[in-house]
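Thread: Modeling a multi-component assembly for a lab meeting

Hi all, long-time lurker, first post. My supervisor asked me to bring a structural picture of a complex we are working on to next week's group meeting, and I have zero experience with this. I have the sequence lines for every component (708 residues in total). Could someone generate the structure of the whole assembly? Inputs are pasted exactly as I received them:
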Amino acid sequence: MSRPIRKRRTIITAVPNPTLRDVAEAAGVHAATASRALNPETRRLVNAETARRVLKAAESLGYQPNPIARSLKTAKSRTIGLVIPDLTNPLFPPIVRGIEDVLGPAGYSALIVNTDHDPAREEALVASLRSRQVEGLIIATARLDHPLLRELHQQGVPMVLVNRRTENVDVPCVTPDDAAGVAMAVKHLAGLGHTRIAHLAGPTSTSTGVVRANAFRTALHEHGLDDDPSLIVACEYWTEEAGARALRHLLDSGADPSAIVAGNDLIALGCYDVFAERRISCPRDMSVVGFNDMPFLDKLRPPLTTIAVPHHQVGVEAARMLLELFEESARPARSVLLPLSLVVRGSTARPSRR
Amino acid sequence: MSRPIRKRRTIITAVPNPTLRDVAEAAGVHAATASRALNPETRRLVNAETARRVLKAAESLGYQPNPIARSLKTAKSRTIGLVIPDLTNPLFPPIVRGIEDVLGPAGYSALIVNTDHDPAREEALVASLRSRQVEGLIIATARLDHPLLRELHQQGVPMVLVNRRTENVDVPCVTPDDAAGVAMAVKHLAGLGHTRIAHLAGPTSTSTGVVRANAFRTALHEHGLDDDPSLIVACEYWTEEAGARALRHLLDSGADPSAIVAGNDLIALGCYDVFAERRISCPRDMSVVGFNDMPFLDKLRPPLTTIAVPHHQVGVEAARMLLELFEESARPARSVLLPLSLVVRGSTARPSRR
DNA sequence: TTGAAAGCGCTAACAG
DNA sequence: CTGTTAGCGCTTTCAA
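Re: Modeling a multi-component assembly
Sure thing. I ran the full set together rather than chain by chain. Output:
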């Protein structure tokens, strides 16, 4: 009989945090039915009229499902972990936003952790993410040799890599088309008439560092330019300071370039510091091209010519890929290369010397 | 009798995801006892030797407590919501890191949402955070008139405001000492000999905009300078474009300043654009001071003199304050003003014209 | 000091 | 189509 239920329904008009049972009682049905009605996936299992009543009851009570209870039952947290080196690097915020723009509408949230490039910290943070039951990981800290990634992969943790890749682990990646980007930079400089072009490469422990350096060498060949090994110097980190050190080293070695392809924008900024130190005029004495097109580069002196990376799109693709992985986790790892574009500003010009 | 338990213990050596019961069985105790032993808070309720056995069992099984189950039981999610306008604004990443540096060690995680300055979006995002059972909110999007904040406060949602304040709601805030910062900027310019100093204020809908503008007027008085109302123009947004528009307006109005105190660094960058447009040489013809000291300002042409805000510290204080609020939610709202410092670079100099 | 029992809010068989 | 039942993994009375 439904009398007692009815009675309760009228008494409980405004519960502080209405539960599914409150809704069910208000609608005069069982909690299970209310659950079915409320979930779009299972709504068709219930009489349309009943469903309507449940929806209305939920609405009027201001019912909000408790995702924690749902998670406990379904063993799905609707949460993913995002592992980045450092959020204050302007590279990452647009990627994060791209990820969240896809995840949010799909009902997922991201937990962000910063590793500060410390493998031990990374391991601890990943462990904490996993203990929080994240369903998958998006990782922006990949090194070529990265035991943690191999281990996670073996344990079947769904993940996708962004920006950088790793070796020996078959994991889907979303990266900029680094080789094409470097080729554009070299073509631009060669077109201006530069013949001694140097490369301040990123760290050789990262795929981005290695891929860009290799692409640089290939591009030189294609343009029939000097492939002097002394024109390539690897930076220890992706930072201004490391870029400055590398350029000083390059200049002191007497390699004498007229143009530089920097591994990324920060390394290019390090070049600016050295230009100031040594009274080198850019672009008159030396041209430089960055990589990434981080914000405010147009405000520099001179404005930096660079390769624009669609960071937001990188995030979007990565998040989509992870969601797809959840759908059919057996799918083979597929990777995506995103197209880049050259942004010509004031840091590149024809060489003034011979 | 413990025989069956023992037996099971030896059989189950490596459960994939060991649960509390697995640990309990392995240690030959009840799940409740294992729970008490594992939780430092309740460990003293259990025999030291038993506790040791439980800890060892947990260790050897690689037990990780399931925070979702715990949350369901305790109605605490160990999660907080962080509401910011836009993560790609370089102001916010250091604040986020400060927050996470405090939250992480305390066992909390942050869910970040970006409102893009859209009140409707903000409302929806806050609702989604609340449905995810966040225990509290850190809000960086406060406007002076902000009905949502008043409503949340009435509902007793623990929250703290960062960067900006709101009116008529008694909520704890962590903000830079805007008035002191503006006073430093004006003092610096006055000391250089400027007498016609303009202010490109932030939006009047935000406390930061209003407080800085008022402080500007006060500082002018203190230095006995022109308080010409036409020297103060409010920008519509905290952006380069709005800053540029405001400066054009100021210049066109004939106010004729020799120096500008910009509401923030982005507004100052907008000034740089106008300087280029109108062939105004900075700092020869016009000095400008920014506010915030966002990254890479030293690389601009000229390097921007600005007021440095300890953003990381802002995040740290805000997170601490929220955690304190959880401890004793009846405590009266307390607010913190963080000290700033002037960073003199190349965008300020003595006035060249008389 | 420990165990038994209950239940957080929800979903998923299963039965009717 | 709907109700019953059980249980996700944990904490917390209450008894013993």
